[in-house]
Design the sequence.
């Protein structure tokens, strides 16, 4: 007889701190230390889903080391949460919730989706504000 291990449901929420922190997060990461595309006139109207914004954020020397450490931490935590819970909600916050948080949350989503032990979805709470 085998014991089936349930898949952990993970929700990633990109949000803006100026609109309030979601109430029910299990983990919260503040990415306001990354360069802000909002201050570049050609990038300001775009979002973190746009390749130009992604390129700008990826060019920040802090982005790659942060993502490497974030992925390692999440990879360490996910099996432990799966042993204890059915779900995990991860918040990624920047100032307005349109650029940096969306980009980083998207990278985390892609990282988690490539595995087979979780069901992952992503929400961009403040992208239209």
Sequence:
């Amino acid at each position: 007889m085998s014991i089936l291990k349930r898949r952990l449901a993970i929700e990633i929420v990109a949000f803006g701190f100026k609109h309030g922190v979601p109430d029910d997060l299990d983990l919260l990461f503040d990415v306001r230390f990354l360069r802000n595309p909002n201050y570049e006139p050609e990038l300001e109207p775009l979002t973190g889903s746009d390749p130009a914004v992604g390129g700008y954020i990826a060019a920040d020397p802090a982005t790659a080391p942060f993502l490497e450490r974030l992925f390692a931490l999440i990879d360490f935590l996910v099996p432990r949460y799966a042993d204890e819970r059915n779900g995990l909600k991860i918040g990624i916050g920047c100032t307005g919730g349109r650029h940096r948080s969306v980009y980083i949350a998207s990278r985390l989503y892609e990282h988690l989706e490539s595995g087979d032990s979780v069901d992952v979805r992503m929400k961009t709470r403040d992208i239209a504000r």
Summary: Residues 8-124 form one domain. Residues 63-84 form the longest helix (22 residues). The chain has three helices and four strands. The mean pLDDT is 94.
